[in-house]
Amino acid sequence: MLLKLENPVLLSKPVELISELVTEVRLKVNEFGMSITAIDPANVAMVGFKLPKTAFSQFETGTEVLGIDLDNLKRILKRCGAGSSLILEKKENLLEIQIQDRIKRNFTLGLIDIESEDKEMPSLEFSSRVELNSVDLVSSIEDCGVVSDACSFIVEEGKFIIEAKSLNSASSEFSGDEAKIDAENCKSRYSLEYLSKFIKASKLCEKTILHFANDHPLKVEFRAENMELSFILAPRVETED
């Protein structure tokens, strides 16, 4: 396996985000590209990451499954600077990582055995799809975090509302002018702890896509050129807000 990536941030930033949910992953490489699918230890959230073959300037591989400690990989990838290129090469039970800029810097990462089963992102049906500016989503989630530990995603009469209520409340309302709303009336409540981690991916792309339904899991998608990162979050079902 020999892979070369001219834009290492396509890998380094997703790895940094995924490491906030899970510590170890099975990184798959095959003829289509690189991917990660993992579930957090609490079984509340799931993450999927895809980096297609076209993202790499060099791509020589069969089918590989690499057991990776994400904290260790994250620390190495942070050594990439602007203008660096990244080379990944598997040799026996090691992943050799070379960062090329003015000089060539070499790291080796020991691969680990991960006994968890291979996972796939589930195929879920949603009644609502909302596409909005990532910066607006970030602001709305941060507003809700000021007053509560959970927020509701609501579609009502063609409007999309992000709302949190406890003793205090906060809400943001989007019409069809501020977001693309293809949705039925519904409401579902989600943990702000997890949403606050997901929205850190907003720096990767201008738009965020939300899929949800009434008291249903949420899917959050971040799609940039040559990279796709998505999260699924279980709803928080409670009798009262």
Walk across the major sheet and give the strand order.
6-2-3-4-18-17-16-10-14
The tally of beta strands, per DSSP, is 18
Helical amount among residues, as a percent range? 10-25%
Largest sheet: 9 strands, antiparallel
Overall structural domain count:
2
Tally of contiguous helical segments: 4
Mean pLDDT: 94
Order of helices and strands: EHEEEEEHEEEEHEEEEEHEEE
Q: Which fold does the CATH topology of the largest domain refer to? A: Proliferating Cell Nuclear Antigen
Strand fraction equals over 45%
Shape: elongated
How far apart, in Å, are the first and last alpha carbons?
51 Å
CATH class of the largest domain: Alpha Beta
- Poorly predicted regions are none
- Which CATH architecture of the largest domain is right? Box
What structural class is derived from the secondary structure elements? alpha+beta
Radius of gyration over all CA atoms, rounded: 19 Å
